[in-house]
From TrEMBL:
Residues 1-21 form the signal peptide. Keywords: Mitochondrion, Ribonucleoprotein, Ribosomal protein, Signal, Transit peptide. InterPro entries: Mitoribosomal_protein_bL32, Ribosomal_bL32, Ribosomal_zn-bd. It comes from Recurvomyces mirabilis. This is Large ribosomal subunit protein bL32m.
Length: 175
């Protein structure tokens, strides 16, 4: 530990006039004469102002030095401590949707029904028959354009079967 030096007289004269007056009694200060309470307390100020910190703490100093972790707490242990009691809980409030019959959380809209409503809004409130008719008309226009350009028309029924087969194959592999 580094050597502890006593404060200089310049420090005492600038910051601690009470301590300086008690150290050098032949130079009375006007502050002490004017306040009798400071004359009584000046003896208690001197040891606290001049004593080094370890002496003041005494036996507590060893305890303060030992109250330090030996190793850094790992990220995993820290997260385990912070997340104690905050695990995911099982969902017990499940109901059956009155519209589609699928399981849904209580007091929450059925996500499947909401999706179908969104789809209905995006289609302009058209039914499946109207959408199929529009798709057939669009496919016929594309085939007419291909005939005009001299290309072979597309057989949309075969393409739909291929895409349905590919979709079922993809869904079967993902499960």
């Amino acid at each position: 530990m580094a050597a502890i030096r006593a404060p200089s007289s310049a420090f005492l004269s600038a910051f601690l006039p009470v301590a300086r007056a008690s150290l050098f009694p032949h130079t009375p200060t006007p502050i002490l004469r004017g306040i009798p309470l400071l004359q009584q307390l000046r003896t208690s100020f001197i040891p606290a102002a001049l004593a080094p910190i370890p002496v003041l703490l005494g036996d507590l100093w060893d305890g303060l030095l030992n109250a330090v972790p030996k190793k850094k707490t790992s990220h995993m242990k820290k997260r385990h401590r912070f997340m104690a009691g905050k695990a995911l809980k099982d969902v017990t409030a499940l109901n059956k949707c009155s519209a589609c019959g699928r399981a849904k959380r209580a007091h929450v809209l059925c996500p499947y029904c909401v999706q179908s409503i969104k789809r209905w809004f995006s289609n302009g409130f058209k039914g499946k028959d109207e959408l199929d008719a529009e798709r057939d008309q669009r496919n016929q226009q594309i085939n007419e354009e291909r005939r005009i350009r001299g290309q072979k028309p597309i057989d949309w029924a075969v393409d739909e079967e291929d895409s349905a087969r590919a979709r079922s194959k993809r869904d079967g592999q993902s499960m």
